[in-house]
Amino acid sequence: AKTGGRGRFCFFSAGMNDVVQQRLVLETALRQAMGTAQMQLHYQPQIDMASGRLHGVEALARWTDPRLGEIEPARFIPLAEDCGLIADLGRWALREACRQLAQWRSDGLTVPSVSVNLSPTSFHDRELARTIAQTLAQHALAPQDLTLELTESVLLDANPSTLQTIAEVRALGVRMSMDDFGTGYSSLSYLRRLPVDEIKLDRSFVADLESDGAARALSNAILEIGRSLKLTVVAEGVETAAQDSLLRAQGYAVAQGYLVARPMAGDALGGWLGRMAGR
Ligand code: C2E
Ligand code: CA
Ligand code: CA
Ligand code: CA
Fold first, then answer.
1. Do residues 238 and 206 make contact, with C-beta atoms less than 8 angstroms apart?
2. CA gap 222, 233 in Å, rounded
3. Pocket of ligand 1, candidates 39, 58, 60: which has the most ligand atoms within 8 Å of its Cβ, to mutate?
4. Distance CA 49, CA 165 (A)
5. pTM for this structure?
6. Which of 17, 108, 225, 266 has the maximum number of C-beta atoms within 10 A of its C-beta?
7. pLDDT tens digits for 27-60?
């Protein structure tokens, strides 16, 4: 029994080593990917439901490692947070999204704005507002061309510079959007204290719209909250025509999801807009 126990222990610790080693491999690969073509932004259209026109696009990071293949944001974003790379990734995404928006416009495309996801750590950066102002100026963009998507965890963050940084960024005229709205639990008080310009109904509500009366009631309540605070309300993860018409009936203004388009490379957006216009 003793030997068996020992054997199990050895097996267990070998397993642990594997996990640690895998993580180290991934972390090293991520460090090397930053600033290379392995790391890209893809863009998912957001549609104004009334006019059918493009409201904006959300930038989503994509990482393809030459050996490991495509790695999902759900894996590498938390990793970047843990190993101190997330602030670099955030600054890179801001610059890259602005560069791309300016490129689309110089190609003659009408893209009203780009949304960039930022982690709580990015708001610890005292220089964030200045970096954003410089980046916008460099590409001759207006502050309203940029939206920053943050999650409630940003607002629950105890770091004292967070609120100040958000205020500085908003003072520039950059829009703020509350992502995954309805999934945290301090949303209402925080929204009142710290105005954002937009809320995004989490896609878990949208997924259950057809089957669950409670999800419909909540999406309706969230829309009313948004309206009464004069916020743009975006529904995320719209996959079916039935979801789309339910959201329309409730009065949602903007939809984003696979029904309209999946995230795509920046240079594919022009073709997509052309096909949209031809429909
Ligand atoms: P998110 O910000 O909530 O982004 C929306 C996610 O839903 C994206 O997944 C998008 O591809 C996916 N999605 C869009 N429409 C649909 C749909 O109709 N159905 C379904 N099932 N999914 C849909 P993605 O790109 O895998 O990103 C996952 C998460 O990773 C993001 O969630 C965001 O929290 C994070 N993330 C992605 N890029 C960045 C980034 O550049 N910086 C930071 N900090 N986080 C990022
Ligand atoms: Ca987002
Ligand atoms: Ca979201
Ligand atoms: Ca999310």
1. yes
2. 8
3. 60
4. 32
5. 0.93
6. 266
7. 999 999 988 999 999 999 999 999 999 999 999 9
